[in-house]
Write a structure and sequence with these properties.
By secondary structure, the protein is α/β, with parallel strands linked by helices. It folds into three domains: 11-85 and 161-278, 3-Layer(aba) Sandwich (Rossmann fold), CATH 3.40.50.300; 284-355, Orthogonal Bundle (Arc Repressor Mutant, subunit A), CATH 1.10.10.10; 365-445. It is built from 15 helices and 15 strands. The strands form four sheets. Strands 6-7-8-3-9-10 form a six-stranded mixed sheet, with helices on both faces. The protein has a four-stranded antiparallel sheet with strand order 2-1-4-5, covered by helices on one side. Strands 13-15-14 form a three-stranded antiparallel sheet. A hairpin with a 2-residue loop joins β4 (69-74) and β5 (77-78). α2 packs across α3, α6 (206-212) crosses α7 and α8 crosses α11 (348-355). The longest helix is centred in the last third of the chain and has 17 residues, at 406-422. It is globular and about 75 Å long. The chain starts with 10 loop residues before the first strand and ends in an 8-residue tail after the last strand. The model is unreliable at 1-7, 261-277 and 440-445 (pLDDT under 50). The structure holds adenosine-5'-diphosphate. Adenosine-5'-diphosphate is lined by residues 20, 30, 48, 50-56, 405, 408.
Amino acid sequence: MPVNTTTEHLIVLRGVNKSYGQPNGQQIAILENISLELRPGEIVALLGPSGSGKSTLMRMIAGLIPATQGEVIYHNRPLVGLNPGVAIVFQSFALYPWLTVLENVELGLKAKGGPSDSRREKALRMIDIIGLDGFENAYPKELSGGMRQRVGFARALAVEPELLCMDEPFSALDVLTAENLRFELLDLWLERKIPTQAILIVTHGIEEAVILADRIIVLGRNPGRIRADLPVTLPHYRDRKNPNFQALVDQVYKILTNPDLETIEPPATTTSTSTPAVAEPPKNQSLPSVRIGSIAGLLELLEDRNERDLYRLGQELQLEIDDILPIVEAAKLMNFVELVEGDISLTPIAEKFIAGGIDERKQIVRSQLLDKIRLVQQIYRLLEAKRNQRIPEELVLDILENHFSPEEAQRQLNTAIDWGRYAEIYSYDEPAGQIFLEQVAIAEP
Ligand code: ADP
């Protein structure tokens, strides 16, 4: 691999924060205190649940968006504007449909300038390397997904970037095509056929990260932050069945699924609640967007199966981490499951839930929601305080937008409405956009 001799690091981030201003003036923290270095010769995977800020971090490194605080340093100088050493491969291919393969690949080179003959020559060379020979004059719509993504790779690599950034480049492809392309990219990298010094790949696939990366940086959510920076020393090409491969996948899975203790604020001094031993739900609590039915399904599955290892359970059920994590998180928020080192177990409350009929289940969820879920508590208190026991949803959205983006605030509200409705704590009048208290309340369990 060509190693940059002028500087030890390609990119250095120091204490980087990213936040977005809301229409109401509030700042929402997306990434917090990110410090990392990218070195020549390495493939680094940015891994984390959806919404942990992986794409945002990659875009800051590419100079597409500025950091709110902290420094992004490129070749020992603070980065201003676009990073000239970076090219990006997007998940959605991002090709111009009215341009041929060759024209699409040439496009990135045009932005860099230079004589058109040499541009064409570079584009043709990269088209050849990336396995698109013979398709130069085809239009994107004539190509399969895998071939389109090859064009995406060729376009990014033609500019000879020092750092190739890839944002979930294989996730729009079918499993086999994705696996082929992954290994072909690895071939090109290991055989030094591509003119790039380092690769940064954003992914939510643990196995994809362990297959490709020399380092895995695990991000956590709310706000996004680095939870782990793990070296991967297994030699290429890695065998998914190898016990060392499995052990590393397990380790990463455990990090991702372990309780995010740092995000939970310690409870403020225990105030006069009826149950002083129980901590108040944290202020920045974020509700995973899942239905109660999914949570019930998970609990029943855990009861039926003997498998306690969440990773194996996910594999058995062919569930991706992004599918299973939100359900597990929701079950954890309601104190239905405990997680220790990636092993999941049911709590006594969950056992009662599973054994219960529909009414008992509703009562249990009601009691857990009112005890553990801050947003449900807030909505309930607001409703109780109103004489007509109705509130407009805008009131809740305004409160939520102090902590979440407008889209996320809407998602949080939808989840709270869905959960509260199931438990018959309150109802939702959709045409009026109002939440209201159920006339007939269920007796407290
Ligand atoms: P990931 O790639 O890990 O899924 P993203 O970087 O796409 O995460 O987003 C992280 C969070 O930042 C999300 O909650 C998203 O809604 C929020 N976000 C991203 N871009 C913007 C923006 N332009 N304005 C407000 N919020 C944003």
